[in-house]
């Protein structure tokens, strides 16, 4: 009997522990239920949106299915300036692609209509670090981003383009943009696409190659007076020939002055100077002699010298002449055609005889010091880029690449 109460007490205590354990488990379960309910954010419908819920639906914060790929890979060096950069998206569409160099200059690009890819609109600069930031969205609108950095190659061989006219200059209506490259170009399309010539007021401007090292730009007709022209040379990184890259990035601006065209009639031996459509002076001239006639055609003044030396040996005339002080000389062709002052012929020669070695001569004084002579007047009233047209000479038309004389090609020839 003494042991029974102890046993009963033990049993009661044991039952109490069991009941307490059930209560603890119930409390724990309730707490877990509260926790799940709190994480679920409310009723069962909301739970279906955020977790596996009643309908086992997608998780709102799950990763985007869109995959962004950037080539070249992050950290790449010695990357080609053309054809290497491309951004693509799988299982989604690109919504943002930002590419910029280390100075923050953006790279323009083209996004595919379906949003699947992006490529730069032009070549990249050489020896330059670029950063890429791209974002794509999947069908559920969830975003996936990619950020990379790469550096383009450092070229071993380079080229530049020597251009005319000069930045900030005012030139005549016949002045083309002429660029001579230091290396022969075998990829002309890439080089030409890297040069942009625009005009204000707007006019169509097209380029034409003379050989593989010269590219000129001009409109169909002479520039309008007052036109402002901008030339953007974006040659840095352009592969002009295998392994040879441009290293120029420059903007050149110039202005077209008043419209002046002088017409030389080799038969009547006169030159009429028209400015803005009106004849402002008629000047007696002497053109090329019968054995050394002057080229016909439209010629552009490319250089001016108040006094210069002319040696026949430099243009194929041997020792026929060597005049050390030719006054008021303006170049019309690379081969040596000038319009210049002449002090050694008699005054009666001008307007009556053609006696030159192919140049157009105007009466002048030795030393270029007399501003009243016809040659001095024409020199002082002409600027680089003015046009001199020669007609009625018993010679052929000048070649368009002999000087800045592309106007001797039709627009159809120029643009083909």
Automatic annotation (TrEMBL):
PROSITE patterns: LD_TPASE (PS52029). Pathway: Cell wall biogenesis; peptidoglycan biosynthesis. Pfam families: Big_10, YkuD. This is Ig-like domain-containing protein. The active site is at 340 (proton donor/acceptor), 359 (nucleophile). The keyword Cell wall biogenesis/degradation applies. InterPro entries: Big_10, LD-transpeptidase, LD_TPept_cat_dom, Transpep_catalytic_dom. Keywords: Acyltransferase, Cell shape, Cell wall biogenesis/degradation, Peptidoglycan synthesis, Transferase. PANTHER family: L,D-TRANSPEPTIDASE, L,D-TRANSPEPTIDASE YCIB-RELATED. Residues 260-391 form the L,D-TPase catalytic domain. The keyword Transferase applies. It comes from the Bacteria.
């Amino acid at each position: 009997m003494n042991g029974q109460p102890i046993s009963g007490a033990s049993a009661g205590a044991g039952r109490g522990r069991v009941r307490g354990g059930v209560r603890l488990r119930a409390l724990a379960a309730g707490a877990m239920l509260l926790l799940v309910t709190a994480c679920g954010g409310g009723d069962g419908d909301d739970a279906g949106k955020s977790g596996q819920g009643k309908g086992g639906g997608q998780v709102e914060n799950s990763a985007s299915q869109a995959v962004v790929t950037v080539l070249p890979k992050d950290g790449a060096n010695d990357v080609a300036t053309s054809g290497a950069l491309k951004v693509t998206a799988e299982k989604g569409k690109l919504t943002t692609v930002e590419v910029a160099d280390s100075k923050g200059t953006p790279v323009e690009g083209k996004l595919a209509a379906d949003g699947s890819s992006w490529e730069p609109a032009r070549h990249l600069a050489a020896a330059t670090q670029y950063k890429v930031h791209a974002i794509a969205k999947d069908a559920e609108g969830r975003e996936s981003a990619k950020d990379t950095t790469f550096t383009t190659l450092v070229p071993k061989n380079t080229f530049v383009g020597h251009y005319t006219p000069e930045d900030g200059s005012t030139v005549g209506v016949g002045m083309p943009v002429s660029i001579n490259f230091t290396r022969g170009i075998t990829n002309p399309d890439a080089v030409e696409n890297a040069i942009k010539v625009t005009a204000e007021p707007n006019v169509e401007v097209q380029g034409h190659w003379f050989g593989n090292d010269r590219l000129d730009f001009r409109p169909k007709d002479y520039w309008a007076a007052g036109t402002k022209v901008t030339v953007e040379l974006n040659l840095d990184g352009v592969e002009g020939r295998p392994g040879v890259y441009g290293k120029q990035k420059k903007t050149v601006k110039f202005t077209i002055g008043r419209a002046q065209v002088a017409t030389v009639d080799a038969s009547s031996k006169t030159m009429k100077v028209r400015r803005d459509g009106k004849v402002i002076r008629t000047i007696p001239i002497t053109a090329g002699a019968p054995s050394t006639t002057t080229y016909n055609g439209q010629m552009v003044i490319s250089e001016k010298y108040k006094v210069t030396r002319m040696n026949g040996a430099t243009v194929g005339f041997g020792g026929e002449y060597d005049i050390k002080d030719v006054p008021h000389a303006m170049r019309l062709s690379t081969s040596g055609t000038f319009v210049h002052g002449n002090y050694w012929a008699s005054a009666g020669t001008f307007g009556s005889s053609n006696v030159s070695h192919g140049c157009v001569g105007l009466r002048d004084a030795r030393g270029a010091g007399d501003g009243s002579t016809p040659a001095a007047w024409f020199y002082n009233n002409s600027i680089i880029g003015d046009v001199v047209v020669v007609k009625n000479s018993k010679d052929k038309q000048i070649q368009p690449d002999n000087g800045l004389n592309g106007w001797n090609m039709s627009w159809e020839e120029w643009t083909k």
